[in-house]
Design goal:
4-stranded mixed sheet; Immunoglobulin-like; 5-stranded mixed sheet; 1 helix; 9 strands; binds copper (II) ion; 30% helix; 2 domains; alpha+beta
């Protein structure tokens, strides 16, 4: 009975290490995906893509190719990025959900767009 207990503990330890190893590999893969980056581009007032899927906490880079400044401002107030003309800005999405956003400088002219965080 004692031997069996020892074997059981040893087996649990090996399994635990194996699961930990799998977890590490999975984390590394996720970090790699985040490094690849999420991006929004603004051309002639058009946000592209108009639906951007992200994970909560992902960094999103916005590039503005217009002569006018724009913003990417969540309708629910969860994020805001001021993007200078021919410049870039970054934001992170702090909570899950669909976040439609708008430009505070221009009430018309922009296409409807949203960031969907999970
Ligand atoms: Cu604008």
């Amino acid at each position: 009975m004692r031997l069996l207990t020892k074997l059981t503990i040893a087996l649990a330890a090996v399994l635990g290490m194996a699961l930990t190893a799998v977890g590490v590999v999975s984390d590394a893969h996720q970090a790699g995906a985040q490094t690849a980056g999420k991006a929004i581009t603004i051309n002639s007032f058009q946000y592209s893509p108009d639906h951007l899927p992200v994970k909560v906490g992902d960094k999103v880079t916005i590039t503005n190719n217009d002569d006018a400044p724009h913003t990417v401002t969540a309708n629910d107030g969860s994020f805001n990025a001021d993007v200078p003309a021919h410049g870039t800005a970054t934001l992170t999405v702090p909570k899950a959900g669909a976040h439609p956003y708008h430009c505070t400088y221009h009430s018309t002219g922009h296409n409807p767009a949203e960031i969907d965080a999970s």
